[in-house]
Amino acid sequence: MIEIRRLEIELKNFKLKTEDISLTNGEKVLLAARNNIGKSIFLLGLTGLVRTKVRDIYLDNKHCKENQWQQHTGGYHDQTSLVPFLTPSERFRMTGEIKGMPNEFIHKEVSKYSEYLYFPKNTTKFINELSLGTQKKVGLIASLL
Prior knowledge:
Layout: E1 2-11, E2 14-23, H1 39-46, E3 54-59, E4 62-63, H2 88-98, H3 103-117, H4 132-144
Antiparallel strand pairs: 1-2, 1-3, 3-4
Helix pairs in contact: 2-3, 2-4, 3-4
């Protein structure tokens, strides 16, 4: 279980404050709201990509001071979070290695998601050479790993 007990971000005139968000193992979440409400800033603060005023995140009731929770979660913000000079398979392998997954598991999961998303297998193109839609599929598959 991941719990966000408090998350506070202040950027110039923008302030965001959340309390008591809990996600159970295996739960998938879609974050949807109107434009300019702070969805992107929330995700950037949650992942540690912007400085936060307060950031109390717990993984299985243990406080995560050093982003350990990122080993147990996945997220995809947009194609700018992809490494453009890697091929998709290199990106998937990198994601799996960061999370400590065996190569066989990575290959099996990528194959499963690729089939579901009609992702071209064994492409040798770099991520920045792919269409925008295919780049999004790379990010989505990596986050599902």
